[in-house]
TrEMBL record:
Domain spans labelled Inosine/uridine-preferring nucleoside hydrolase: 4-278
SUPFAM superfamilies: Nucleoside hydrolase
A single GO molecular function term of this UniProt record: purine nucleosidase activity
Superkingdom to which the source organism belongs: Bacteria
Name of the featured protein: Nucleoside hydrolase
Signal sequence bounds: none
One CC-aspect GO term: cytosol
Regions crossing the membrane: none
Keyword ATP-binding: no
Keywords: Glycosidase, Hydrolase
Example of a GO biological process term: purine nucleoside catabolic process
Length: 305
């Protein structure tokens, strides 16, 4: 059992909600709490809390920083949470995520993994508050960047200053970039399995379809679930040797990421993926999260789940 804190910008691209549901269906991971970042972090926190309720989990959810350290304007799709009635009734923490992260790490040094699947603003602020926190994170799992090409990935571009600070702090880190996540897709057959997985599956299925409609597609790339799965199923991935990552700050190439091998470095990147098996694992864990609670409530026949 490994304990993990999820830092997420849940609510725009549906992959954050998928990653949260996946974690809720992964029994070998203890999801300690969820932190939200970027934009309306209170709304994001309420949405994360709602997904916990749908899975029968009493999640501790902490809103974080709304504005990137880079000063870049927040991208907002406009549909965040619109399919979830009564979100204002969901109770979330009055604390701030950077302060909470420091407190948790101080209480449990070397015992907590962090999965950061949005801009790295909360983590950068936490390190500013307590530089020693970099030594207290067991391992940092990041969805961000794109390596070996000229793409500037959203999370790193949205807060290039935060990405630079966090990835140069000496934290043991694994990064999954776009060149890996884009090899994995979720299409209609897997959507139907998710949709049938109780109330959580129905809600997530609707959010997935909303995202597909936003882009006029019938599939999506589960960027964040892929990055999170590298923690619990590393045998489905290949990884680089140790190295360092540099982030372009400012200008037209803001957020562009470069990996350089270095035996003294603290960062590795994912270099390969079993795409079909990863898509299956993501789907199966989401289905497990939804069906377990639905069976317990008698909403699904356990023999047919």
């Amino acid at each position: 059992m490994r304990s993990i804190i999820l830092d997420t910008d849940i609510g725009s691209d549906v992959d954050d909600a998928m990653a949260l549901a996946q974690l809720l269906g992964t029994p070998e991971l203890d999801l300690v709490e969820v932190h939200t970042v970027y934009g309306d972090t209170l709304l994001r926190a309420r949405l994360a809390r709602r997904y916990g309720v749908l899975a029968g989990r009493d999640l501790d959810v902490v809103p974080g920083l709304a504005e990137p350290l880079s000063g870049r304007e927040v991208w907002w799709a406009g549909h965040e949470g619109t399919l979830h009635d009564g979100l204002a009734d969901e109770t979330v923490s009055v604390d701030s995520a950077p302060e909470r992260l420091v407190a948790r790490l101080r209480e449990h040094p070397g015992e907590l993994d962090v999965a950061a699947i949005g801009p790295l603003t909360n983590l950068a602020k936490a390190l500013e508050l307590e530089p020693g926190a970099a030594r207290w994170i067991r391992h940092l799992w990041v969805m961000g960047g794109s390596f070996g090409d000229e793409k500037c990935e959203h999370n790193f571009k949205s807060d290039d200053a935060a990405a630079q600070a966090v990835l140069n702090a000496g934290i043991p880190t694994t990064i999954t970039g776009l060149e890996i996540t884009q090899q994995v897709t979720i299409e209609s057959a897997r959507l139907e399995r998710i949709r049938a997985a109780g109330p959580l599956g129905a809600a997530l299925g609707a959010d997935i379809e909303q995202w597909w409609a936003y882009w006029s597609e019938t599939w999506n790339v589960p960027h964040d679930p892929v990055a999170v799965l590298a923690l619990s199923r590393p045998e489905l991935f290949s990884f680089s040797e140790a190295g360092r990552v540099t982030i372009a700050v400012g200008g037209e190439r803001a957020g562009h990421s470069t990996f350089t091998p270095d035996a003294d470095g603290s960062v590795r990147i994912v270099t390969g993926v079993d795409a079909e098996q990863v898509a299956e694992e993501i789907t199966a864990r989401i289905v497990a999260a939804g069906t377990a609670y639905a069976v317990a409530r008698g909403e699904i026949d356990g023999d047919r789940a």
